Amino acid sequence: MRVTTQTRLATRERILSATANLLLAQGWENVTTRDITAAAGIANGTLFNYFSSKEAIAASIIGEALETAEQDFHRRHTGDESLDEDLFAFEWASLKRLRQFRKFLAPAVAAIFSPLAKPMYEDAGAEIRARHLHAVQQILASHGVPQPLPAVLVQLYWSLHIGSFAFWANDSSPHQEDTLALLDRSLKLFAASLSGPQGVEHERSSE
To answer: How confident is the model at residue 180 (pLDDT cuts 50, 70, 90)?
Structure first.
């Protein structure tokens, strides 16, 4: 029997919803792909027609939330913001959209984005990384920062981003004030590094 596009989309959404609910209720380490197929009401083999692993499903959950966050950012953007303000607003919009999944984000991010992650897991987050960095480079370009960025600055930004993200996932301060402070300082550090080779050399010599 031919599976329609509508049926495939409905099954995919059922898998994503079932996975998110299981991860929130049971934790990252306690959920298997068999648990997911049972909760989604599909055969064990059917899952792999849609996703290669639990990590790939989590990456899709995160990715969809971040796409919505990017839309939030552009909807509220006026064009009068400074570079620091734009970067902060973009990052904070992402964290707000991911707040509902916060209980399982720390181990999920470690599995998907860690440099030590297995290649198949790291690939699950490759699309998210590419989309996020593209959006950031567009923000930088709108403020007159020459593109493309040197690879070292791209890596610096991504390291600061993932570090702030992981900190936020475990931040127990009442309204994540500690994350706000860390994010503010991290983004100012990154913005300062955009002053050019001289600025980078100056920071290196002062360490």
So the answer is: very high
